[in-house]
């Protein structure tokens, strides 16, 4: 079986280390996984006044999530939480009430920062948000990546063998997790 993974980059920066990490993850993933980015940068701020007439950006986001088999969050940590832009996207995805696009959608979280705890606090907070959205999450392995200069090239080649092996293992486990969830949990 092959599965389509929609991936979110939590950073809007053109120089994002998390975007660089995403390139490595796609390179190292098993062949059973195909990838589509789900863009978040053009979403307006969520406002429930718009629930009755969802803007095109919100509709496109929901449709993109509903089209894929699983979602992968690749996110920085901002002030010990996920960036507001990513939280905003999840808020749009979760509404209007009763149409939560993340419901039952298998997910995994990974993130990079220059600091030693590598987005650990933001990831824990994201786990709470995804639990509320009823998205089954891969609980292990966890992946807190300290992004040192040169660790991953702009094309996504990993320079350090142990990091490369770890990221490959993370993606293999994610593939197995997606397969397991989709086998037992009806979607849609
Ligand atoms: C940061 N950074 C940061 N790093 C961290 O490990 N924990 C944190 O809480 C924060 N907080 C934070 C807030 C804000 C507003 C900024 C702009 C940055 C540093 C951050 O990890 C670094 O800028 C990364 O390069 C951001 O990821 P992207 O955008 O390169 O993917």
UniProtKB/TrEMBL annotation:
Gene3D superfamilies named among the record's database cross-references: 3.40.50.360
Keywords: Oxidoreductase
Transmembrane regions: none
Domain of life where this protein originates: Bacteria
Pfam families cross-referenced by the UniProt entry: FMN_red
GO molecular function terms noted in the UniProt entry: FMN binding; oxidoreductase activity
Enzyme Commission number, as recorded: 1.-.-.-
NADPH-dependent FMN reductase-like domain mapped to chain residues: 5-145
Protein name: NADPH-dependent FMN reductase
Gene Ontology CC: cytosol
């Amino acid at each position: 079986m092959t599965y389509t993974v929609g991936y979110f980059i939590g950073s809007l920066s053109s120089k994002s280390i998390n975007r660089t990490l995403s390139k490595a993850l796609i390179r190292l993933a098993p062949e059973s996984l195909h990838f589509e980015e789900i863009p978040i940068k053009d979403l307006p701020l969520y406002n429930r006044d718009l629930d009755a007439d969802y803007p095109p950006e919100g509709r496109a986001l929901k449709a993109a999530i509903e089209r894929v088999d699983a979602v992968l969050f690749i996110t920085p940590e901002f002030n010990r939480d996920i960036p507001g832009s990513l939280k905003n996207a999840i808020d749009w995805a979760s509404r209007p009430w009763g149409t939560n696009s993340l419901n039952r959608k298998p997910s995994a979280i990974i993130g990079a920062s220059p600091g030693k705890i590598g987005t650990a606090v933001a990831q824990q907070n994201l786990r709470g948000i995804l639990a509320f959205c009823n998205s089954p999450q891969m609980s292990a392995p966890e992946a807190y990546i300290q992004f040192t200069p040169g660790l991953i090239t702009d094309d996504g080649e990993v320079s350090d063998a142990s990091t490369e092996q770890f990221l490959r293992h993370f993606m293999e486990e994610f593939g197995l997790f997606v397969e397991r969830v989709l086998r037992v949990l009806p979607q849609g």
